[in-house]
What we know:
Blueprint: E1 16-21, E2 32-37, H1 40-50, E3 55-59, E4 76-87, E5 93-112, E6 115-121, H2 139-153, H3 159-164, H4 167-177, H5 182-190, H6 194-219
Parallel strand pairs: 1-3
Antiparallel strand pairs: 1-6, 2-5, 3-4, 4-5, 5-6
Helix pairs in contact: 2-6, 4-6, 5-6
Amino acid sequence: MSPNPFDPSFDQLPEIISIFPLTGVLLLPRGKLPLNIFEPRYLAMTDDALSGNRMIGIIQPSDPLSRASAPPVYPIGCAGRITSFSETDDGRYLITLTGVCRFEVVRELPIVRGYRRVTASWERFADDLAEPGPALFDRARLVEGLRTYFKIQGISANWDAIEATPDERLVTSLAMICPFEPSEKQALLECGTLSERASMMIAIIEMAVLDKRDGDTMARH
């Protein structure tokens, strides 16, 4: 995949980034995440991003059950750049974030216009901006597990398209769209390499299939 000429260089990554905490939502470098923005604080965040560097950080709450106004978040998220934007007649924004680079939260800053911001460290994930290397994983095993996993989840798929999708796009897209648990999504986000992410996803899928089979077996006894 060729580098996007509109993506920032490492030196252009911002020191401060707004964050959008979303449980079970994953953004990965070069992945595309559509969002429906309707809360006033996130409309304000989008306005400010569009008038600046167009960057927003997607991050998961670490305690999805927390009722705090600013629930704790995981220490690692992924910054995305707004690459498409439209507005609706009922006051919503429809945007697409394209993942740029993961970041570590250094510290949280005071809320501005209702949304949260953090100071971010990018050094650990500088390679996210580079062309990805070859993915070393058992693709046939992934697709085989996926066929059963999708059947269990009631998900239909275009298998010809999946077979033709390049490795990085396949792994990134599956990690983002599959209904994994939030903690599993976070583990996929934090994998060091594409190969590690693919191997972890195979393990998650195979475990889900095994759990389903065990559950069916117990139900018959």
